[in-house]
């Protein structure tokens, strides 16, 4: 599936589950899919832009924002959004778990 199709699928799924309104201002116009934790930061956790739209793995990190709110947010974390810290913590926990597993595998080979 192309990135364009993944974004369209995420957009439709969010409209169904969250309603067709901007999570920030409530507008119903020009809605876009936004990453609560920006995709540029997700790369640090080994998550590509393409996989970041997967609703099963990363749906908790997606929201609908109108074009104006998305432009204002840009690629920053909105710390006033109460969802930001728990989502970031979940990615940090997963990274820690993955690194611990790799460390354990390395120690078992020695």
What does this structure look like?
This protein is mainly α and 110 residues long. The chain has one domain (3-109). Helices cover 52% and strands 9% of the residues. The protein has five helices and two strands. The protein has helices spanning 3-18, 39-42, 55-58, 67-73, 84-109; strands at residues 31-35, 62-66. Strands 1-2 form a two-stranded antiparallel sheet. The protein starts with a helix and ends with a helix. The mean pLDDT is 90.
Count structural domains: 1
- Give the low-pLDDT segments: none
Number of helical runs?
A: 5
The number of strands is 2
Largest sheet: number of strands, sense, barrel closure: 2 strands, antiparallel
So what's the oligomer here?
single chain
- Quote the distance from N terminus to C terminus: 41 Å
Indicate the radius of gyration in whole angstroms: 16 Å
Can you give the helix content as a percent range?
40-55%
Shape: elongated
Keywords:
110 residues; mainly alpha; 2 strands
Topology:
Blueprint: H1 3-18, E1 31-35, H2 39-42, H3 55-58, E2 62-66, H4 67-73, H5 84-109
Antiparallel strand pairs: 1-2
Task: Offer a quick outline of the entry.
The protein has a two-stranded antiparallel sheet with strand order 1-2.
């Amino acid at each position: 599936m192309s990135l364009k199709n993944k974004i369209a699928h995420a957009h439709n799924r969010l409209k169904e589950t969250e309603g067709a309104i901007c999570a920030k201002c409530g507008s119903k116009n020009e809605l876009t899919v936004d990453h609560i934790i920006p995709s540029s930061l997700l790369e640090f956790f080994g998550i590509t832009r393409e996989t970041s739209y997967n609703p099963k793995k990363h749906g908790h990190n997606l929201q609908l924002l109108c074009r104006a709110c998305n432009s204002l947010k840009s690629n920053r974390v909105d710390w006033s959004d109460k969802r930001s810290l728990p989502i970031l913590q979940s990615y940090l926990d997963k990274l820690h778990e993955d690194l611990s597993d790799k460390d354990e595998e390395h120690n078992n080979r020695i």
